[in-house]
Design goal:
6 helices; Alpha-Beta Plaits; Arc Repressor Mutant
C-alpha cells in the first residue's frame, strides 16, 4: 500500500448462510451469493473480492473509516430489504442479512495482513452482537462526524463509555438499534 493514500477495507459475511444452504438448497444459496455480489459491485470506487464461500471483501482507496462505515451500513440495509422480500418469495426460514467489519489503512494498521485481521475482528464483533450490523475496530473510540452532538453531550458519552468500559461507537450503535426497534414497526 502507498503510505500517502488511505484505503478502507470491509469484510462481509452472510449471516446464517449454512442454515439457508442446508434448508433451501445450494441453488438458493448460489442465487443469494450472486445477488449479494451484484449489490457489492454497485459500491462506488470499490474493488470487490469473494474471499471464501459466503465471505466478501471490499477495498476503497481514499475512503475514511467513517465513509466506509456509512457505505457499508447502506449496503447492509439494502441487502436486508431485498432479503426480507426474497424470504417471503422463496419461503425461506429467515431473511438474508449480512455482518460487516471495517478498518482503514494506515489508521488501524500499516500492513495488509494486520488490516485484514482488524476488519475481520470487527466483523466477528458484529456477529457476536447478533449480526446484521456493521462493526468497527474494537479500539475505535470514534463518534461518527455525521452525528452532530454538542460538545457537552460528547463529553457525557465519553464518561459513560469509560465507566462502562465500552467503546463510544458501540454505545451509539446500541442506542440507534434500540431507537429503530422502538419506531420501526
Amino acid at each position: 500500500m502507498k503510505a500517502d493514500l488511505p484505503v478502507a477495507l470491509a469484510v462481509l459475511d452472510v449471516d446464517h448462510f449454512l442454515e439457508i444452504n442446508e434448508t433451501l438448497g445450494r441453488e438458493t444459496g448460489d442465487r443469494m451469493l450472486t445477488a449479494i455480489a451484484d449489490t457489492l459491485k454497485e459500491v462506488e470506487s470499490a474493488h470487490v473480492y469473494r474471499t471464501s464461500g459466503d465471505e466478501f471483501a471490499l477495498a476503497v482507496s481514499g475512503a475514511t473509516l467513517e465513509n466506509m462505515f456509512l457505505r457499508m451500513e447502506s449496503v447492509r440495509s439494502s441487502l436486508e430489504a431485498v432479503g426480507v422480500r426474497e424470504a417471503a418469495e422463496w419461503k425461506e426460514v429467515r431473511p438474508r442479512t449480512v455482518s460487516i467489519g471495517v478498518a482503514q489503512y494506515p489508521r488501524d494498521h500499516k500492513e495488509v495482513q494486520g488490516l485484514i485481521t482488524i476488519a475481520t475482528a470487527a466483523l466477528w464483533g458484529a456477529k457476536e452482537l447478533g449480526g446484521n450490523r456493521v462493526g468497527l475496530p474494537q479500539s475505535e473510540e470514534m463518534v461518527m462526524k455525521s452525528c452532530y452532538y454538542s460538545s457537552a453531550r460528547l463529553r457525557r458519552l465519553k464518561l459513560v463509555a469509560e465507566k462502562e468500559g465500552r467503546a463510544e461507537s458501540v454505545l451509539l450503535r446500541e442506542a440507534l438499534d434500540d431507537l429503530l426497534k422502538k419506531y420501526d414497526r
